[in-house]
Amino acid sequence: MSSVIIVGGGAAGMMAAYAAAEHGHRVILLEQNEKLGKKLFITGKGRCNVTNACEKDELLDHVVSNPKFLYSAFYDFDNVQMMELLREAGCPLKVERGERVFPESDRSSDVIAALQRLLKQNRVDVRLHTKAAGLLVREGSICGVLLADGSQIAADAVVLATGGLSYPSTGATGDGYRMAVQLGHTVRECVPALVPLETRESWCAALQGLSLRNVSLAMYDGKKQVYQGFGEMLFTHFGISGPLVLSASSYYGKCKKKEEVICEIDLKPALSEEQLDRRILRDFEENINKGFKNALGGLYPAKLIPVMISLSGISPDKKVHDITKEERRALVQCTKRLRLSVAGLRDYDEAIITQGGIRVKEIDPSTMESRLVHGLYFAGELIDTDAVTGGFNLQIAWSTGHLAGSSIPAPDGD
Fold first, then answer.
1. What is the pLDDT at residue 188?
2. What strand order describes the sheet that includes 152-154?
3. In what order do the strands lie in the sheet with 157-160?
4. Which one-letter DSSP state was computed for residue 374?
5. How deeply is 392 buried, as exposed, middle or buried, from its count of CB atoms within 10 A (0-12, 13-18, 19+)?
6. Which of these, 32, 10, 3, lies nearest to 379 by C-alpha position?
7. For position 408, what pLDDT does the model report?
8. Using CA atoms, how far apart are residues 74 and 78, in angstroms rounded to an integer?
9. CA 330, chain centre distance (Å)
10. Cβ distance 50 to 111 under 8 Å?
C-alpha cells in the first residue's frame, strides 16, 4: 500500500482523498484550518451550489479558461456521478433554475458531512490544524511534505489542492502557488473572478440595492464583445453585482483594453427596438397629458426612473404629448443599451474564485500529474482554469480532485 498526502481539505482536496483511498492508497489529508470545507461552507450564501445538472457535453461550454484541459477530468468524473455520490452518502439534492444543484436542506454543512462520511468510510487520516510549508523532492520525484512545525511526512505521491486567493478569511494564502513555483512550475497571473464590478458612473450609488431580473448584459473590450448573458443583477454603492455580473467579471480579466471595457445592459431583452418603441408610444398615449416623469411607472422600477430620465436627456416636466419621436428613440436606446464603464474588479475578499494559476501545459490533463515533478498532482482552484457561475467551478474541483486521486499508481510490488 502506497502513502499519499493531500494538501488542502477543501472541495478538491476532499475528493482527491476519497478517490485515492478508494483506489487502495493509505491517505493523509492535511488541513490548516480547524475544520474541512471552510470555503465550501459559505458557497452559495451557505446553500452550496454543488454542481450543474446540464448535459455532460455542456460542461465545457461554461468554462472560461482552458476548457479543453478539463476534457479528461469531466469524462472521468462528471456532474451526474457527483450527484449520485452525494445522494449515496446521505445528502439528497434538488435542481433549481438554471439547472443549479443544491442540497435539499439548503445547508452546505450537509454536503461537507456527506464528504466526511466518505472519508471516514475509506479510513482517510484527516489532520486538522496542520499546515504544509513545502514539498520534499528527491531525484525529481515527490518524497514527502514539510510541515510548518518543521516535521516531515514521507509520501509516495502528493496532491496539492490548497485553493486560490479568494475569500482569504477562510485561510486562502496562495501557499500552493508558492510551493509549485519552488519546484519549477509557472503561475499565470492571478486575479479575482466571479466578483462584483466597480463602475465609473456615480448614478449607480443612487440605485444601491436595486435588483433587476430577466435582463441581458454584454461586455465589450473596446469594440469586441467578450461576454453576453441573461439573468439577474444588482446595483451597489460601487457599481454592479449579482449572478449575471459575476459571470461577466471572469471575462474582464482577459480584456486587453482595461480602460475601454463597457457593460451594456438591455433592460427589455424580450423586445426589439421597434417593439419597445411601440410599447413606449402606447404608454405615452395612456398618459398623454402627464409630465414625462409621471409616465414611466409601467416601464421601470421606481428607483430607476430618475436615472433613466437623466440619461434620456428629456426634461422630467415635459408633457408627454410634446415629446418628439427623436426623444422617444433616445429613451429606447437608453433602455436597450444602458452603458456602464468598468473601472475594475472588487478584491479577493468578495471574489468567489481565483482566475489564473498553475500553467496547464505543465500538468498532464489525463492524470493531473505534474509534467515536471513525478508524483506531484494538482487539483481545484490552483490550476489555471475557471468557469462562470452555476455550480461549474465546484464541478471543476470535484472532477480534477477525483482524477488526481484515482490516477496515483500503486508502487512497484503492490
1. 94
2. 132-138, 141-147, 152-154
3. 125-127, 26-30, 3-7, 157-160, 376-378
4. B
5. buried
6. 10
7. 97
8. 5
9. 36
10. yes
pLDDT at 173: 83
CA dihedral sign of residues 305, 214, 61, 403: positive
Name all contacts of 104-107 with Cβ < 8 Å and 24+ positions apart. Answer: 106/46, 106/47, 107/46, 107/47, 107/48
DSSP category for residue 315: -
Q: pTM to 2 decimals?
A: 0.92
| 3-class secondary structure, 290 | coil
Residue count of the chain:
414
- Helix extents (H) in 299-391: 305-312, 325-336
Could you give the CA distance from residue 222 to residue 162 in angstroms, rounded to a whole number?
Answer: 36
What's the pLDDT at 412?
A: 62
DSSP string, 291-307: BGGGS-TTTS-GGGHHH
Residue 214: strand, helix, or coil: strand
Answer yes or no: do 40 and 188 share one domain: yes
Q: Please state, in angstroms and as integers, the Cα–Cα distance from residue 230 to each residue in 138, 186, 215, 320, following that order.
A: 52, 35, 6, 32
In this prediction, residue 4 carries a pLDDT of 98
60 with 115, same domain: the answer is yes
Among 346, 368, 395, the domain-final residue is 346
Range of the domain at 70: 3-192+354-407
pLDDT at 253: 83
Q: Which residues of the chain have pLDDT under 50?
A: 413
Q: How many CB atoms lie within 10 A of CB 278?
A: 13
Q: Following DSSP, what letter does each residue of 234-254 receive, concatenated?
A: EE-SSEEESHHHHHHHHHHTT
Q: Is 350 exposed, middle or buried (0-12, 13-18, 19+ CB in 10 A)?
A: middle
CA angle in degrees (0–180, nearest 5) for 389-393-396: 150
Do 252 and 345 contact (CB within 8 A), yes or no? yes
> Which residues are 358's β-sheet partners?
187, 383
180: closest CA among 204, 161, 205? Answer: 161
- 102: CB partners within 8 A, 6+ apart: 44, 47, 48, 49, 50, 93, 94, 96
Cell numbers describing residue 42 = 459559505
Sequence-distant (6+) residues with CB within 8 A of 80 are 56
**Is residue 387 located within the same domain as residue 253?**
no
My answer on whether 294 and 331 are in the same domain is yes
Number of domains in the chain: 2
Say if 307 falls within a structural domain. Answer: yes
